[in-house]
Structure formats: C-alpha cells, structure tokens
Amino acid sequence: MSEDLLISDIHSLGQKDALDILARIARVEKKTFPSSEAWDFGADLWRKKPNTRVLYATNAPPSSRSKEPPVLIAYALYVRQKGTALLHKVCVAEPYRGQGVGQKLMNYIDERLRREGCQSIQLWVDRARAPARALYARSGFQEREVIDDYYAPGRAGIRMVLDLERG
Ligand SMILES: CC(C)(COP(=O)(O)OP(=O)(O)OC[C@H]1O[C@@H](n2cnc3c(N)ncnc32)[C@H](O)[C@@H]1OP(=O)(O)O)[C@@H](O)C(=O)NCCC(=O)NCCS
C-alpha cells in the first residue's frame, strides 16, 4: 500500500480541505495518545502558525472522479526554529503500521528539511515507545540525553537528534 502513499502539507490545501484533514488528524491523535500528550490539531494550525508544519499522508485517490475521500494514513508535525526543526509528532494510523509508512514519512521529512536549509532535527520520545525509537534510529537519529519522569512518573524521555549537515 505504501507505493500509493501521497505525502503533503496542509498549507498546500484550500481552507476547507485543510480543516477537514486537521479534524481527521485530531480524531486519530485522540485515539493514539493519552490526553496529556495529545496535540491540539485545531484550525489555528492552518491559519496563523507559519513556523509550524503539519504533514499528512493519504492513499492516492483512485480517480479524480471518485466520491470517496482519500483515507488518512499518517501525519507529522514539526516546528522550525532557525536551523533546527522540532519534530513533535509522527503517527501512523493503527491499521497501516508495520508496512513502511513511518519510514516513508521520515524520508520525506528529512528530504524536505534539507531542501529548506534546515541543519538538524530534534525530538523527544518516550523510552517505552520501542517502535518509534527503532524508526528514529533507522532514520539516523542519535540518542543524546535521557530524562527520567519526563512524560510522567516512571516514564523517561529520550532526546534524539539528526544532524542534517553530516550525511
Ligand atoms: C512509530 C510509528 C510511527 C512507526 O510507523 P510504522 O509505519 O509502523 O513504521 P515502519 O513500518 O515504517 O517501520 C520502520 C521501522 O520502525 C521499526 N518498527 C516499526 N514497527 C515496529 C514494532 N511494532 N516494533 C519494533 N519496531 C518497529 C522498525 O525498525 C522498522 O524497520 P523494519 O522495517 O526493519 O522492521 C507507528 O508505530 C506509530 O504511529 N505509533 C504510535 C504513535 C507513536 O508512537 N509515535 C511516535 C511518538 S510521537
């Protein structure tokens, strides 16, 4: 299925479609993360946050005449701060995990940020999220710091960095 993946940015859409994608992302977000970690994918992300990028992946529409809306498969959110991008969220909807979608999304983010002149990507990940840590490690991220109880008592956070100027 990942050959048909279409990755884009909500800012490439008109307002109506962007708000529709954001609403669908918000539903997956709520299902996936505890409320303390769920990002607010509200309409203001489209309107007034120029440093914040929301990427989404859908299946390619079967044909332009199809009435079926494309399915939301994955999304990511990063914030640009000068030469660094803070990657706050990477998520693949549950039925599509383990099929290479996460890796494709990471490759897209890597290429796009390099093209935009970004020097490094930083993120925090829960030590217990093994699939996410494996995905980031495979994408070239290095673990730089561990903070105990970062997310909640007993839940450590790991800071990972990808240096885009190195390779
Ligand atoms: C983490 C996540 C994005 C991975 O996406 P995915 O599409 O399932 O990952 P891929 O299929 O592209 O796998 C890429 C690599 O990730 C690792 N991986 C993926 N699923 C894994 C699993 N269940 N267990 C261990 N490693 C796993 C592997 O290293 C895999 O490489 P492989 O192909 O050699 O096995 C997805 O599991 C997810 O959305 N999880 C819930 C949300 C989350 O934890 N997000 C990160 C914190 S914001």
Automatic annotation (TrEMBL):
Coiled coil: none annotated. Signal peptide: none annotated. Residues 8-165 form the N-acetyltransferase domain. Gene3D superfamilies: 3.40.630.30. It comes from the Eukaryota. The lineage of its organism: Eukaryota, Fungi, Dikarya, Ascomycota, Pezizomycotina. It holds the Pfam family Acetyltransf_1. This is N-acetyltransferase domain-containing protein. It comes from Paecilomyces lecythidis.
